[in-house]
Amino acid sequence: MTTPPLYRSRPGGFDIQPASQPEARQINDFIYCSEGLSNSYLITTPEGRIAINTGMGFEAPVHKRNYDAVDDSPLRYILLTQGHVDHVGGVDLIREEGTKLVAHANNQAHQADDARIASFRASRSAFAFADAIARAWTYIQEHVGGGISAQSRPIPDITFDDRYEIELGGLRMELLWTPGGETTDSMVIWLPEHRICFTGNLFSALFGHFPNLVTVRGDRYREALGFIESLERVRALQPELLLPGHHGPVAGKETIRQELTRLRDAVRYVHDETVRGMNHGKDIHTLMREIQLPPELEVGEGYGKVSWSVRAIWENYAGWFHHSSTTELYSVPAKSVHGDLVELAGGAEAVARRANDKLGSGEPLAAIHLAEAALHASPTNIAALEAMIGAHEQLEGESENFWLTQWLRKQLGDLRSTLDAVKAKEKES
Question: pTM of the entire structure?
Answer without folding.
Answer: 0.92
